[in-house]
Amino acid sequence: MLQATELLPGAFHVPLARLADARGAFVKTHAVGALARLGLHFELREEFYSLSRRDVIRGMHLQLPPHDHDKIVYCPQGRALDVLLDLRRGKGYGRSRGVLLDAREPALVFIPRGVAHGFKALEDDTLMVYKVSSEHAPTHDAGVRWDSFGFDWDCAAPLTSERDRRHPALAEFDSPF
Ligand SMILES: Cc1cn([C@H]2C[C@H](O)[C@@H](COP(=O)(O)OP(=O)(O)O[C@H]3O[C@@H](C)C(=O)[C@@H](O)[C@H]3O)O2)c(=O)[nH]c1=O
């Protein structure tokens, strides 16, 4: 893993080495030792992926205590604007950060519990892979409306889910973190 950037306290963008040869490319996406060198200890409980067309916006999602979890995401196909929103009470509350995830320049994003996650697909067939440190708990699967926290998504007509349109605005969200 290459030089990491801290996006929000405890949230990291970590570039991944892409080893290309005549056959194609090789990318290591999980290395416990490299995460530990960033002070990160991650216990995998579930892994899943989503496929999105261009201008799909998913988010902003997080699981609430006691089912809260850390999350690692990466984009092995396509391109996405990945977005984090800090919902941990304190001076950083409500702060957001966006970072480009491009399969051609692989990187992962580590998202600690208490930080909501979302993204906009910048291309058709954008694949997002997730790893989470607790199991899916539908009763504790929460969110904040994607257009309620002042982030510029630069998207006139996003395709969103019914569930994502019903999330509370940031101003209405009662954070347990
Ligand atoms: C997240 C999740 C969903 N599901 C189900 C619920 C639903 O029927 C279907 C699709 O779920 P959603 O509409 O919530 O999928 P989606 O909007 O893609 O949810 C994802 O969004 C991004 C931004 C994240 O950060 C992820 O952690 C995850 O919350 O899959 C599971 O069975 N297990 C899971 O862990």
TrEMBL record:
A Gene Ontology cellular-component term: cytosol
GO process terms (BP): dTDP-rhamnose biosynthetic process; polysaccharide biosynthetic process
Record Gene3D superfamilies: Jelly Rolls (2.60.120.10)
Name of the top EC class for this enzyme: isomerase
Catalytic residues identified in the record: H61, Y130
Alphabetized Pfam families for the sequence: dTDP_sugar_isom
InterPro entries in the record: RmlC-like, RmlC-like_jellyroll, RmlC_Cupin_sf
Reactions that this protein is recorded to catalyse: dTDP-4-dehydro-6-deoxy-alpha-D-glucose = dTDP-4-dehydro-beta-L-rhamnose
SUPFAM superfamilies associated with the record: RmlC-like cupins (SSF51182)
Listed GO MF terms: dTDP-4-dehydrorhamnose 3,5-epimerase activity
Superkingdom of origin organism: Bacteria
The enzyme's E.C. designation: 5.1.3.13
Function: Catalyzes the epimerization of the C3' and C5'positions of dTDP-6-deoxy-D-xylo-4-hexulose, forming dTDP-6-deoxy-L-lyxo-4-hexulose.
Protein name in the entry: dTDP-4-dehydrorhamnose 3,5-epimerase
